[in-house]
Design goal:
Layout: H1 2-33, E1 39-48, E2 54-65, E3 69-71, H2 73-83, H3 86-106, E4 113-117, H4 120-124, H5 128-139, E5 146-151, H6 158-171, E6 174-180, H7 187-190, E7 197-200, H8 202-206, H9 211-226, E8 230-233, H10 239-247, E9 252-253, H11 264-274
Parallel strand pairs: 2-4, 4-5, 5-6, 6-7, 7-8, 8-9
Antiparallel strand pairs: 1-2, 1-9, 2-3
Helix pairs in contact: 1-2, 3-5, 5-6
The protein binds ligand C2E and calcium ion (3 copies).
Domain EAL: 23-275
Protein name: Diguanylate cyclase (GGDEF)-like protein
Length: 275
């Protein structure tokens, strides 16, 4: 029994080492990722549920590591947050997403709203609003066409968050609470926030057959509508989910049922064939 325990321990250690090794590889890799042009952005369409018309898109970061291959943002963003690299990376995404949106506007595409994910660390940094303002001036994008997606964890420091949200509103930038329903906030706190949109987390949509999840979804939609907020359902994959969401009067959605995230050219092609 003792022998076995020892082996288990060794195995665990090996696994732990692999995890740490990978983390170090990611951390070091991120340092040169921008300079080596390993990052790019894909665009995930957002549609109106009634007519499936595209009204905007979310910028999602992609990283092709030279040896690890594609690393998911779900893996490297938390590491970048931990190491502080998120500042530079987040600014890169914001700048390039705004640049691309402005190119589309200039080329005569209807003015779609570009959403960019912002990590809490980035949001709470003292310079954040200045950075956003600077990038808008630099890229000449009309602020009304930029939306920032922030998670509920900003509620941990609700006072400061409200100040930042107000400043963003003054700039003309829209804000959205991402992954709504999974974090710290209550509906009570939500009513205090000067935001424009809430995104119902995919986990609720995944379980939409479940009566309890239906109840949550309906409550969030109703609450959002009463506060004059847009409500977006994320991760819509099936016609069945779509028809329930429409029944619940959800206006907007996003998910593989409508489209996968697309590169610039794919997005242009989809848009031209759809609208
Ligand atoms: P998120 O903001 O909740 O983005 C939605 C994620 O779900 C994306 O994964 C998207 O590709 C995926 N998704 C959307 N619709 C469906 C669907 O119908 N089915 C399924 N199975 N998946 C769907 P992705 O691109 O891997 O991003 C993961 C997370 O990484 C994002 O979650 C976001 O939190 C973070 N992230 C991505 N890009 C950035 C960025 O530029 N900055 C920051 N701070 N975080 C980012
Ligand atoms: Ca998001
Ligand atoms: Ca989301
Ligand atoms: Ca999510």
């Amino acid at each position: 029994a003792k022998e076995k325990g020892k082996n288990n321990y060794r195995f665990f250690n090996k696994k732990l080492c692999k995890t740490i090794e990978r983390k170090i590889l990611i951390e070091n890799g991120l340092k040169g990722a921008i300079q080596n042009k390993e990052l790019h952005i894909v665009y995930h369409p957002k549609v109106t549920l009634q007519s499936r018309e595209i009204y905007g898109m979310e910028a999602l970061l992609r990283w092709e590591h030279p040896t690890l291959g594609n690393v998911s943002p779900a893996e490297f963003i938390p590491i970048a947050e931990e190491t502080g690299q998120i500042g530079v990376i987040g600014e890169w995404v914001l700048r390039n997403a705004c640049k691309q949106a402005e190119i589309w506007h200039e080329n005569g595409f209807p003015p779609l709203i570009i959403s960019v994910n912002v990590s809490v660390k980035q949001f709470q940094h003292g310079d954040f609003c200045q950075t956003v303002k600077g990038i808008l001036q630099e890229t000449k994008l009309n602020p009304h066409y930029l939306e920032l997606e922030i998670t509920e964890s900003i509620m941990q420091d609700i006072g400061q968050s409200i100040t930042v949200l107000k400043k963003l509103k003054e700039l003309g930038v829209k804000t959205s609470i991402d992954d709504f329903g999974t974090g710290y906030s209550s509906l009570y706190m939500l009513k205090e926030l000067p935001i424009d949109t809430i995104k119902i987390d995919k986990s609720f949509i995944d379980n939409i057959i479940d009566k309890k999840d239906q109840y949550m979804i309906k409550t969030i939609i109703e609450f959002g509508m009463n506060l004059n907020l847009h409500v977006v359902a994320e991760g819509v994959e099936t016609e069945e989910q779509l028809s329930l969401l429409k029944e619940f009067h959800c206006q907007f959605g996003q998910g593989y049922l409508f489209s996968q995230p697309l590169n610039e050219v794919e997005f242009e092609n989809l848009f031209c064939s759809n609208n």
